[in-house]
Design brief:
The chain has 438 residues and is mostly helical. It folds into two domains: 226 residues, no CATH class; 211 residues, no CATH class.
Length: 438
């Protein structure tokens, strides 16, 4: 394709496999939590699983953007080797961090001083983290090869790899329901997750062989500017973005405990966030599509942004229907969630406050892609810092003024305000760098 004949259907074909991939990844947590709720000591193990996964998410944050880096910067054999070296270093390093976290002296500080875990779940969390040691490294290597696959527009292979991961989780879940009788089911669930991710990594590496051979026989004049040091300088802002984003979760929890209906807010907020996440995930998948298309067709290809905003509009409409119709009682009270009836209005109103997020996610994907392709990744970090600053600022101001509303509503308002502010910043910066390419 050339810049003059990009068709919307071609964009959709690239996007759909990645959107399915995100949908399947979102489903795996629901599956494992559903299984844990049916096994021994459900409450303890669900809590331990949640804590262990939140720690794993923070540890894996440095490798999250390897997918974008691989998609954007692997142009030929030389750049492939440079990006691969960074991917291997980060993957090994993050798994080592997980190993360090479970050293008894380190874990004692983490569990007792930093997290102040209840004694009933301390051991469950520990063995869950042990099971997750391979997790961040496998994710890093997998995301690197997924980027190589996307670079060659073989996106269906990414979805196939995730299907293998989901099937592994389903198989492990069935075995757990039939044979697991221990009270330590959270470590088992984390072990299933680590095994599934490792299987997906191996499958992705194997499926990427054709794309790798193609790249190794390619020499692009644009890759001569890329050195390992330059790549690190470009990647650090992207990694910082993930770290800052992952770190906001505990901040929301800390603030909600200081407002009315703290327990209800802490219970409902993750449900609202997860529900809205399902409708934002197609836009997360779109970022790699936008990077690939902007790299090939140039930053002024308007159809790239148009498709993203079309997807976001549909997602917003679906969220609005769920939040404002009797469907909300089904979603929050029957399937997939089983909230008490008294919490349904809180969940629905909170979802309404988060309605702008799909559009914001579209802006994130499109404008971050512009910045990544144009090698101005520092602005991605600046936007995330701005988001975090506004989010924390809104909640701090509310605490200072002692506003008497449920914490979940304030958290939703703060999240929306922070993301909208960051999106406006990205729009202005993206427009500037598009103009600079004229």
């Amino acid at each position: 394709m050339t810049s003059g004949n990009l068709q919307t259907i071609a964009i959709i074909r690239l996007w759909v496999p990645l959107a399915l991939t995100w949908a399947m990844m979102a489903a795996e947590g629901v599956i494992l939590q559903s299984v844990l709720s049916r096994l021994q000591d459900a409450a303890t193990n669900l809590a331990a699983f949640g804590v262990a996964i939140s720690i794993a998410f923070i540890v894996e944050a440095p490798v999250i953007m390897l997918l974008s880096a691989s998609t954007a910067y692997v142009l030929g054999s030389r750049s492939y080797r440079i990006v691969r070296a960074l991917a291997l270093a980060l993957s090994f390093g993050t798994s080592c961090m997980m190993g360090i976290a479970v050293l008894p002296p380190v874990y004692a500080i983490l569990s007792k001083t930093i997290l102040a875990l209840p004694p009933s779940i301390t051991d469950h969390v520990y063995w869950s983290l042990v099971a997750l040691i391979p997790w961040p490294g496998a994710i890093g290597i997998r995301r690197f090869y997924q980027g190589v696959i996307i670079k060659r527009h073989m996106n269906h292979l990414v979805a196939l790899g995730t299907t293998i991961r989901l099937l592994s989780i389903i198989a492990g879940s069935i075995l757990a329901l039939r044979f697991v009788r221990t009270s330590y089911t959270a470590p088992y669930a984390c072990g299933v997750l680590a095994f599934a991710v490792t299987a997906e990594m191996i499958a992705t590496w194997w499926m990427a062989r054709y794309a790798v051979r193609s790249i190794q026989h390619t020499n692009s004049p644009r890759e001569s500017m890329l050195t390992f040091r330059r790549l690190v300088a470009l990647y650090i802002p992207l990694a910082m973005t993930s770290l800052i984003t992952m770190g906001l979760g505990p901040v929301f929890a800390a603030f909600m405990t200081r407002f009315p209906n703290a327990v209800a807010s802490l219970a409902v907020f993750p449900i609202i966030d997860n529900t809205v996440f399902q409708f934002r995930s197609p836009l997360f998948a779109y970022q790699e599509v936008a990077i690939s298309l902007y790299s090939r067709h140039g930053l002024h290809e308007k159809k790239v942004a148009k498709a993203a905003y079309g997807i976001a509009t549909i997602a917003t409409g679906l969220l609005l229907v769920i939040a404002t119709t009797p469907l909300s009682d089904i979603v929050f009270g029957v399937f997939p969630y089983h909230l008490d009836t008294s919490l349904h209005p809180m969940a629905a109103y909170g979802m309404i406050l988060l309605l702008p997020l799909p559009i914001v996610s579209a802006i994130y994907s499109v404008e971050r892609s512009v910045l990544i392709v144009s090698h101005h990744t520092n602005h991605v970090t600046y936007s995330t810092l701005l988001e975090a600053g506004v989010t924390i600022g809104v909640m701090s101001l509310a605490a200072l003024l002692r506003i008497n509303i449920s914490g979940v509503y304030l958290a939703c308002v703060a999240m929306t305000a922070g993301k909208i502010t960051a999106a406006v910043y990205l729009l202005f910066v993206g427009r500037y760098y598009r103009s600079a390419r004229d």
